[in-house]
Specification:
Blueprint: H1 2-18, H2 40-46, H3 64-80, H4 83-109, H5 115-125, H6 131-147, H7 154-181, H8 190-222, H9 227-255, H10 268-291, H11 295-299, H12 303-332
Length: 359
């Protein structure tokens, strides 16, 4: 458990540095304002120049001082929202959703190609995980591939739908956590909520299929290139994979919360920061577990499960922190950050968009 203590200690130190006694309280539910007769120009006229980025129409227009305030509030808000506990719940339900998601992925891929091919590619994609977690993923993929028939039957269709439905439960828990990060209260019906969760789950499966294609097909296409060409192509391939992760997170941040959807430009910063933190954090976590951790001695046969859960916890925490950053970025400006025609505060259908930092 040494890695957990070290990570939590680091987070506490960062929070102490970022917190300031004179900082404006981060959580500001949209006040009950009457928007009738209020024009968008009124919000622009009353935007306080003391707040850096108060008139920003995009994240790029927020100055460095404004982003420093956003990051400070994001860490404070993550503490107020108990993101560390939320991440634990998301990681647990995500772990339960992994096997159904793999079943759906291998079954769909097996209709057009050899399921063993996707298994080998997923194992190569999991190379960034610690060795104990890699073996866990490999064993589960092997079981799924063995059970896959590779032909389209009524039973296969039913099993795929059942697997997607089961996996969407994990997605639904992630949606609830992102709702909290955006200070929203869930008001969607059960059917609509499940439908959105299914759509996001299916999108995640498609994302993995595209990632597998980039990893599996690219080496064949690169055989005819020289050494320099192969190096450049490999860099481009991994840049595309990172771009897919950023895009996937942006879609989740935009669709998951129960609010008027923000413009894509206002979900991009948190997506980029979360992706960078996830890549770096996963590499450092894998290095620590492989070289300094003693999970095999402590947990024995359960070491792979424990390490994989810890990695899912780290991933969930970073994803929710990205949502907090996006939320506070919207809170920094008085301009309308939601899609569609600009609306005055109080009628934008989003807690963070309907309020702004006071000077």
């Amino acid at each position: 458990m040494g890695v957990v203590v070290r990570l939590l200690s680091a987070v506490l130190v960062v929070r102490q540095v970022l917190q300031s006694p004179d900082e404006t309280p981060p959580r500001r539910r949209a006040a009950a304002r009457t928007a009738a007769g209020t024009a968008q120009t009124t919000a622009e006229a009353t935007a306080s120049p003391a707040v850096p980025g108060a008139r920003a129409r995009s994240p790029q227009q927020v100055p460095a001082r404004g982003w420093w305030q956003i990051l400070r509030r994001a860490f404070k808000e993550s503490s107020a929202d108990n993101v560390s506990m939320l991440a634990g719940g998301v990681a647990f339900f995500g772990f339960l959703a992994i096997i159904p998601a793999l079943i759906a992925l291998v079954s769909l891929y097996g209709l057009v190609a050899d399921p063993a091919e996707v298994a080998a590619t997923i194992e190569s994609l999991s190379a960034g995980l610690p060795e104990s977690a890699q073996s866990l993923v490999a064993d589960q993929i092997g079981s799924v591939v063995t059970a896959s028939s590779g032909s389209l039957t009524t039973g296969l269709v039913i099993s795929i739908l059942a697997a997607l439905f089961s996996a969407s439960s994990g997605t639904q828990n992630l949606m609830a956590a992102i709702n909290i990060a955006y200070d929203e209260t869930e008001g969607r019906g059960a059917v609509k909520l499940r439908a959105i969760a299914l759509a996001l789950t299916l999108g995640a499966v498609v994302f993995v299929v595209v990632a597998v294609a980039l990893v599996a097909v690219a080496p064949v296409l690169l055989d005819g290139l020289g050494t320099a060409g192969r190096v450049v192509a490999q860099i481009v391939r991994w840049v595309l994979l990172v771009g897919l992760v950023v895009t996937g997170l942006a879609v989740a941040y935009r669709i998951a919360p129960d609010r008027d959807a923000p413009r894509f430009r206002w979900v991009t910063p948190g997506s980029v920061i979360a992706t960078v933190l996830w890549v770096v954090g996963s590499a450092l976590f894998s290095f620590y577990v492989d070289n300094f951790g003693s999970y095999n001695k402590t947990y024995g046969a359960l070491a792979g499960i424990v390490v994989f859960l810890l990695w899912l916890y780290l991933t969930s925490y970073i994803v929710l922190l990205g949502a907090e950053i996006n939320s506070e970025a919207e809170y920094q400006t008085e301009q309308d950050t939601t899609r569609g025609e600009p609306q005055p505060m109080g009628s934008r259908g989003a807690a963070k968009a309907d309020d702004a930092v006071d000077a």
